[in-house]
Amino acid sequence: MVANKKRVESFLVKFLLLVGGILISMPFIWMIMSSFKPESEIMQLVPSLLPKEFTLENYIKLFNEMNFAVYLRNTLVIVLFSFIGLFLNAMTGYAFAKYEFPMKERLFYLVLATMMIPSQVTMIPVYMILNYMGLTNTLIGIALPGMVAGFSVFLFRQFMSTIPDEILEAARLDGASEFYIFFKIVLPMSKPIIAVQGILTFIGAWNSFLWPLIMANEESLYTLSVGLSLLKGQNVSSYGLQMAGASLMIVPIIIIFSIFQKHIIDGYSLSGMK
Questions:
Q1: Distance separating alpha carbons of residues 37 and 53, to the nearest angstrom
Q2: In which residue ranges of the chain is pLDDT below 50?
Q3: CA atoms of 141 and 220, how far apart (whole Å)
Q4: What pLDDT score does 272 carry?
Q5: What are the C-alpha distances in Å from 50 to residues 54, 95, 106, 271?
Q6: pLDDT at residue number 134
Q7: Domain-wise residue ranges, the chain
Q8: 68 burial class (0-12, 13-18, 19+ CB within 10 angstroms)?
């Protein structure tokens, strides 16, 4: 009886999760499928989930007529800079976790204090600094403020504090340099937190909207999110184009999450064991 009851409960839980997953996924599936439909099929009275007439016209128009190739290039450049910043954050967190230096605790509290300040408050000072440096209306100016984040430094510091000091000391006794220890020992042991931060970094850079809109005065410097907002304003009645643009924004995030999902689960498991 107990075994049968557990099987029934397990079946009900899996069934409810499956139904909930399908319901949550339906808007995304509809959006992606509609991006491959002609406009007449999207607007028909009785809609269908799968396209009856499969077409790439919406995506071709996005890249040939709507300048989305430029927006994609700019977004990828910002993502690249953000991942460079991810390793800078990791190095900073490692320094706070494993090194002793003057005013270490005060500096770390200062890093934590930056997490309490809304980004909207610092936008004008940061803009003025970058304008003084001549970096406004440039991709570097758009990407630079997002390379370092107090929250990221905090997470890396907390995770790397759990790495045993004995491993690092043994590597130093064997003659390993500090850079070798960091890249060959610390980073491989920090895969779970790197995966989590990698996803957060990618999503933040990929979806960046307000800061690029403020910094860029030319359309050639716009990101995908800014281009998508322009697309919605210029093509209000073209739902196929809007669906294609939105799919272009969402699908890469889903792919990145799928790639790093295993490491995130490993991170949760490690956190539960400690």
A1: 6
A2: 271-274
A3: 14
A4: 41
A5: 9, 53, 58, 42
A6: 87
A7: 66-234
A8: buried
The 3-state secondary structure of 36-83 reads CCCHHHHCCCCCCCCCCCCCCHHHHHHHHHCCHHHHHHHHHHHHHHHH
CA distances in angstroms from 270 to 17, 266, 273, listed in the order given: 25, 6, 5
- Shortest CA distance to 154 belongs to which of 192, 107, 118? 107
CA contacts within 13 A on the Cβ side of 136:
14
User: Measured between alpha carbons, how far is residue 21 from residues 8, 11, 47 in Å?
Assistant: 20, 15, 22
Predicted TM-score of the model (pTM): 0.82
> What pLDDT, on the 0 to 100 scale, is given for residue 13?
86
User: Which amino acid would we find at residue 23?
Assistant: L
Q: Please, what is the Cα angle at 193 between 190 and 199, to 5 degrees?
A: 130
Q: Identify the pLDDT of residue 264.
A: 63
Amino acid 271: pLDDT: 44
CATH of domain 66-234: 1.10.3720.10
CA dist 247 and 32 (Å) reads: 6
Query: What's the pLDDT score for residue 1?
Result: 62
The C-alpha atoms of residue 196 and residue 201 are separated, in whole angstroms, by 9
Residue 117 identity: I
> Looking at residue 26, what is its pLDDT?
87
For 161-238, where are the alpha helices, taking DSSP H only?
A: 165-173, 178-181, 187-189, 191-206, 210-215, 224-234
